[in-house]
């Protein structure tokens, strides 16, 4: 029922060097699917065939706001071809979230994008970093974006590391927004003092509680992401996969 994905940004050096070879290694490690951070000019049908060959599901694609705004039909068509259930906006430039008014305008833009995705059978979501947990007046930027967007059109891919990095609790955010959360980024923190990434299960994040909250609201995909490494890339993502399987059991 629950699936483990890998955000391919975690192994970007490998995907840039040998995209399909990296996909095969991810499959061999035991991941159920991959979340894309670029397609490296790969034709959609070729990628679909490779995913099928390696037994991987598409678990989302991070697509920049410029592409989403200017080339949405082609983005949707690519996602449909590779049978990707999610299109995710991973970042917003500062001028799109530096005031209540800009956040509300951005929320409407995200709503428009999400409604178009929904028409094509794809869920659209937004992925947070830390800046969404800064305040404008009495409001979190996170809340301004999601409270002013259509809950059916704009879902949440919650990056649990960045939530905890800011001092907030992922479980509280999941409980507040419930089934609007469609995917959790499972990214561990080495220590509360250093606040850097480490392999899942090797840090201080309370993933038992976070995953229990995700399960309560029907989250299906739990996606590993790591940006800082002390071990070889594939060794790290294998440790994370093994530990996350135990946490989900």
Automatic annotation (TrEMBL):
Residues 23-230 form the Xylose isomerase-like TIM barrel domain. Gene3D superfamilies: Divalent-metal-dependent TIM barrel enzymes (3.20.20.150). Pfam families: AP_endonuc_2. One of its GO terms (molecular function) is isomerase activity. Transmembrane segments: none annotated. InterPro entries: IolE/XylAMocC-like, Xyl_isomerase-like_sf, Xyl_isomerase-like_TIM-brl. The keyword Lipid metabolism does not apply. Keywords: Isomerase. This is Xylose isomerase domain-containing protein TIM barrel. It comes from Mahella australiensis (strain DSM 15567 / CIP 107919 / 50-1 BON).
């Amino acid at each position: 029922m629950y699936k483990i994905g890998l955000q391919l940004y975690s192994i970007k050096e490998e995907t840039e060097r040998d995209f399909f070879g990296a996909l095969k290694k991810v499959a061999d490690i035991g991941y159920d699917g991959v979340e894309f951070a670029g397609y490296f000019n790969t034709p959609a049908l070729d990628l679909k065939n490779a995913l099928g060959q390696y037994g991987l599901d598409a678990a989302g694609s991070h697509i920049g706001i410029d592409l989403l705004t200017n080339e949405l039909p082609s983005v949707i068509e690519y996602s449909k071809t590779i049978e990707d259930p999610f299109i995710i906006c991973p970042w917003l430039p500062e001028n799109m979230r530096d005031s209540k008014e800009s956040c509300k305008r951005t929320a409407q833009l995200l709503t428009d994008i999400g409604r178009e995705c929904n028409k094509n059978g794809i869920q659209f979501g937004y992925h947070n970093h830390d800046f969404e947990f800064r305040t404008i007046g009495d409001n979190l930027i996170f809340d301004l974006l999601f409270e002013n967007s259509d809950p059916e059109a704009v879902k949440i891919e919650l990056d649990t590391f960045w939530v905890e990095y800011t001092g907030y609790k992922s479980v509280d955010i999941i409980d507040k927004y419930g089934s609007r959360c469609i995917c959790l980024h499972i990214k561990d923190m080495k220590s509360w003092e250093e606040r850097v990434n480490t392999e899942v299960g090797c840090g201080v994040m309370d993933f038992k509680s976070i995953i229990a909250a995700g399960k309560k609201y029907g989250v299906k995909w739990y996606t590993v992401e790591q940006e800082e490494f002390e071990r070889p890339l594939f060794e790290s993502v294998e440790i994370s996969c093994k530990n996350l399987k135990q946490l989900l059991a």
